[in-house]
Design a protein that fits this description.
Vanadium-containing Chloroperoxidase, domain 1, mainly alpha, single chain
């Protein structure tokens, strides 16, 4: 059982309870639909794993991971061929704008007490445990119900996290960015890059592994259970709340969080979910 530590707050436990209480009926409905013989007027069938989606199992995870990494690191070659320029420009442009504004937005979150309760309830350990608990619970439900689709969803979420985490290690090791919390008061916050720890497993830095993890897991779940219209709203809403907490707690600059979330979404949606 995964225990969620909450440093004085119950928000992560409440969020997990809300998500799982809402999710269990969806998984039950998935299984019921598979064994029933619905008429054309009944609810649409849940998505089935098709040739266009990734086939996954515990045994194929290592192979999938290395295939993903090859595709991720070869991405500049795709740009050289004239592909994916518009989304790349959008992400790089938005991240650059946020980096330029980080020195002006960070002081507000360093000097306000408005988010103290939210920050205590959404500590790094609490939100990390929450992110891990969601796919773990889906996998457990899949085992109990003998639902291979649910098990596959959990494994794909784990694969997306592993891919994003490997890339995050490289970014943090190279950029060595300080956390906003390492500055006193108003900063100046302008020398954050290359002046912090180049240890890739340290807290903070560019980019946010919490934002990446939250959005990679949310993207897999939202895509795989998109026939339930509420799932994407809940999944991305929770991912957004977790990511925002990294800013309000001065663990990350807004650009770290935005870029981390964008990487989580892009890796999950375009490297992990498509079939091979």
């Amino acid at each position: 059982m995964i225990k969620i530590t909450s440093f004085g707050g119950r928000l992560p436990k409440a969020l997990l309870f809300v998500f799982l209480v809402a999710a269990v009926p969806a998984y039950c409905q998935e299984s019921f639909d598979r064994v029933s013989d619905p008429s054309p007027t009944e609810q649409p069938q849940p998505p089935a794993v098709t040739a266009s989606e990734r086939q996954v199992s515990l045994g194929t995870l290592p192979k999938n991971f290395f295939a993903d990494q090859k595709e991720i690191w070869m991405f500049p070659g795709q740009l050289a061929k004239g592909k994916h320029w518009l989304p790349t420009i959008a992400i790089v442009g938005a991240t650059s704008a946020l980096i330029a504004s980080d020195a002006h937005t960070a002081p507000y979150f360093r000097n306000t007490n408005s988010f103290n309760g939210f920050d205590r309830a959404s500590s790094g350990l609490s939100s990390g445990a929450f992110i891990a608990a969601v796919p773990a619970t889906i996998y457990a439900i899949g085992l109990i119900k003998k639902d291979s689709y649910a098990q596959g969803t959990s494994l794909l979420a784990a694969e997306a996290f592993a891919d994003g985490f490997a890339l995050d290690l490289a970014f943090k090791g190279i950029t060595g960015r300080k956390q906003p919390s390492q500055y006193a008061g108003i900063g100046p916050y302008t020398d954050s890059f290359f002046n912090g720890s180049h240890n890739p497993v340290h807290s903070g830095g560019f980019y946010s592994v919490h934002a990446m993890s939250a959005f990679s897991v949310a993207t897999v779940i939202a895509h795989r259970y998109r026939n339930h219209r509420w799932v994407p709203f809940v999944a991305y809403g929770l991912a957004g709340a977790i990511s925002f907490a990294r800013v309000t707690g001065s663990n990350h600059f807004p650009s770290d969080v935005f870029f981390g979330g964008a990487m989580g979404f892009a890796i999950a949606r375009y490297a992990v979910l498509p079939g091979r």
